[in-house]
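Structural prep section.
Before we set up the soaks we want a predicted structure of the protein with 3-methyl-2-oxobutanoic acid in place, mainly to decide which crystallisation condition to try first. Input record follows.
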Amino acid sequence: MSTPHSPKDSLIIFDTTLRDGEQSPGASMTREEKLRIARQLERMRVDVIEAGFAAASNGDFESVRSIAEAVKESTVCSLARANENDIRRAGEAIRPAARGRIHTFIATSPIHMEKKLRMTPDQVVEQAVKSVGWAREYTDDVEFSAEDAGRSELDFLCRIFEAVIKAGAKTINVPDTVGYNVPEQYAATLRKVIERVPGSDKVIWSVHCHNDLGLAVSNSLAAVMAGARQVECTINGLGERAGNASLEEIVMAVRTRADIFPVETRIDATQIVPASRLVSQITGYPVQPNKAIVGANAFAHESGIHQDGVLKHRETYEIMRAEDVGWGANKLVLGKHSGRNAFRARLQELGIAVETEEQLNAAFARFKELADKKHEIFDEDLHALMSDEAVTPEVEHYRLVASRFHSETGETPQAELTLTIGGRESRSQAQGSGPVDAAFKAIEAVAASGSELLLYSVNAITTGTDAQGEVTVRLAKDGRVVNGQGADTDIIVASAKAYLNALNKLSGNMEKLNPQL
Ligand code: KIV
Ligand code: ZN
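Run finished without errors. Recording the tokens verbatim:
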């Protein structure tokens, strides 16, 4: 279909699902969840994993550090604002990494400098240079970002980039922080800074685009044509507000249109769909069915004319093969006769760490319970099962012990629940417009959280009527938004678990700084 350019430059894929992705409302992840995603990103051969913002909280510091310890094949990066404390926290967190990067940033647009930072342009340049210097005490791999570059003045961008390159930055990122740019204009900015900044040939030029106008991928790809050699992106396009450029779209565009793009990535594309599912499962952000590459309908041909064409010759309507991006990799892994060793081995293959024998035993017992109800256990089931297991007792203030639901035509649905709250057992019952409503009311009758339900969604994890239902419940309280997940073959039980999981997150200490505030 296409004649590739040759030789190709490498396009560095910098994944920021664990940092910018986590800035999506309610998408905060536990350390264990982040580790699982990081391992999947490593398996996918992502070049750089932005593991978090180490100075945001102790939890974030520990997450970045654990990922730096665990990941060997990808560079592990921490974000840091341009101040000494943030940079030293980032430097400490990435210390165990085989290859560690510090990514420091400061805003450069007139509106951000004046209204947010209350700094003059001279002060901003000085702070940026000092910050790169502090970061270089920890690693040679320092990235500098000019936040809101998309609305910054070109002359000022050139000035600050020249200064940070002299100070030792090796990657220069030109973010369209507010998703304001359009492809031709953004590409022109990249072309101009690359032409004008002394030393530009010694650094990698990077792009980081937000999707407020739905242009994040187009802008990123236009910038690649203009000379950018790193793209910052996220799985499923997760990210602050409308999200970031989606990794799968960037990677597959570059690969599918190898006749146009002068670059290639190292990504193992067959890991894309598993990564997409994992991120969706952990964050509770569903993937829209018509989403490119990873949506359930991305390769489904509905019209008779299309189906006929594809059957006669696949390339009549398909520009990519579903199996090349990991569709159909849905493996039947275990069943009710599988033993503890097979279970442990599959968890290891999936990169799911089980820290103690006790945890393994508890997880295995739950696996057996599930295998009794559902004979075929897929990787997705294991991920869901282990997400439940990963809730440690300290943060599991609320736990479902037993449940009974009654729903009958002509009767008001009713839920009876036994919960533990802070270790003490408590019973509750309530009626509702349906069994889920009744279950949530029964929980609130004893938890009295006062939170507001923003979202309730149910998804089947795999196919078949015996599939586990995966429920997401988004709750808001005092300005905080959290997503809770629960999975079970009984969707009412899954719903109650998801509600309790969200309450646990609200009650846990998940306070942290947003780097951009
Ligand atoms: O959008 C943005 O500008 C960022 C920076 C911190 C790179 O996320
Ligand atoms: Zn961003």
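Observations: The CA atoms of residues 178 and 210 lie 6 Å apart.
Flagged for discussion at group meeting.
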